[in-house]
Specification:
Strand content: 15-25%
Distance between the termini: 114 Å
Strand order of the largest sheet: 7-6-8-9-10-13-14
Radius of gyration: 27 Å
Helix content: 40-55%
């Protein structure tokens, strides 16, 4: 081989060696580039977006996904190098079985946690299924207390449950009635027959007589129900001072409209977790049927600037600012705070972070979050009343924007 050939061969060898070294360096550096942003954290967003409860489910999804958008836009989960939250959407189809099926899919998709459920029956079932996989489950609305009294270590409810809501509702009803000179003595209860309505009716039947009220009749109905004429006729015949509806949105609206059409005008319609009573949609679409209805329910803090800003943002999207929206919005923020403090998408670490949560950056009339056996001890409802074309807070006084009007003025 000539000297020139040896020189060319040596040059090519050195060039190839340099390229190989560069390639190797690139391989070594690649993980550094990938570490610039953490892998997305998958979160299951579970709601009944089809079936009888679809409106409430769709509203809940709006709140949850908006919170995720805002978290991601603000830089994601800082403790995980800016990891984005990826929503894994699920439709419970308004049934417990539908909720279970979605939890199974979400677990297979390796979600870090689940938010939602809405209906008590769905939350009861779905959280139980999630518990089999040690999958953190944050309940958005479901109020049956057995959701958090079964000893499930994976389940956390941000809002208040039946016990707290019923006590608050009855305390406030007594106070409102006493201010009116004890104008009301008799009550009829109309409730849907699932875990939510039946459980609430049982509580009211046990406690209202102790508060000095006579229950004339308790009427159960299925969801969905398309005709309330017979129920309205019973109300008209017994002429109670107060009607307490306990049903989901569609049935609540239909019952109130039927009572209006049949000119049934009790001294008050007083809801406990009324499916439409604190709904801007109901007030806008059926103002006459909604007028003067009182409710003890989930509500935002009307004196919190963040709550008002969120309301404006939702309404700018031509959506209604319902409790499903801000409850889910807050629950996603709560979960994101737990993931941030856990510094991990590991399910066990997220559960531990939720147990020790002191989350306070929410839009609700609550103090800092404190979970005991999965229940947020600081959660509390408020009383509202439809006055004019708006929904006003009437109790507690520190949040009130108006005083209660009771009994209902003559037509």
């Amino acid at each position: 081989m000539s000297r020139q050939s040896l020189t060319v061969s040596r040059r090519r060898f050195l060039q190839s060696t340099a390229l190989g070294a560069a390639a190797a360096a690139g391989v070594l550096q690649a993980p550094t580039v990938l570490r610039a942003q953490g892998a997305a954290v998958k979160v299951g967003i579970l709601h009944p977006v089809s079936g009888a409860l679809s409106y409430s489910g769709q509203q809940g999804r709006i709140g949850a996904t908006l919170a995720i958008e805002e978290i991601n836009a603000a830089g994601g989960i800082k403790a995980l190098r800016g990891a984005k939250i990826e929503a894994v959407l699920g439709d419970a189809q308004s049934t417990p079985d539908g909720g279970n099926a979605e939890v199974e899919k979400m677990n297979a998709a390796a979600v870090a946690a689940i938010v939602g459920g809405y209906a008590s029956s769905i939350c009861l079932s779905a959280s139980q299924t999630a518990a089999r996989y040690d999958l953190p489950y944050v309940v958005d609305v479901g109020v049956v207390d057995s959701i958090v009294t079964r000893g499930l270590k994976n389940t956390f409810r941000f809002g208040p449950g039946f016990g707290v809501i019923a006590k608050t509702a009855l305390d406030n009803l007594v106070a409102i009635n006493e201010q009116a000179g004890k104008a009301a003595k008799t009550i009829m209860i109309v409730h849907e027959d699932s875990a939510f309505g039946a459980g609430l009716a049982k509580l009211l039947n046990a406690q209202l007589p102790e508060r000095g009220f006579q229950i004339l009749e308790t009427i159960a109905h299925p969801t969905p129900t398309r005709d309330f004429n017979n129920v309205a006729l019973k109300i008209k015949a017994q002429n109670p001072d107060i009607v307490i509806p306990a049903n989901y949105y569609n049935e609540y609206v239909l019952l109130a409209r039927t009572m209006q059409q049949q000119r049934i005008r009790p001294k008050g319609i007083y809801s406990v977790l009324g499916g439409a009573a604190s709904s801007y949609k109901f007030v806008k679409e059926f103002p006459d049927a909604a007028r003067y209805i009182m409710d003890c329910n989930h509500w935002f803090d009307p004196k919190n600037p963040k709550a008002i800003a969120l309301k404006k943002k939702i309404e700018a999207k031509n959506e209604f600012y319902t409790y499903e929206v801000y409850m889910n919005y807050s629950c996603v923020l709560l979960l994101a705070d737990a993931i941030e403090r856990a510094g991990s998408a590991d399910r066990a670490k997220i559960i531990a972070a939720l147990v020790n949560s002191s989350f306070a950056d929410h839009v609700m009339p609550y103090g800092p979050t404190k979970f005991v056996d999965g229940q947020n001890q600081g959660a509390a409802p408020v009383n509202t009343q439809v006055l004019g074309s708006d929904i006003e807070v009437i109790l507690p006084t520190q949040f009130a924007s108006a005083k209660p009007v009771f009994p209902i003025p003559p037509a």
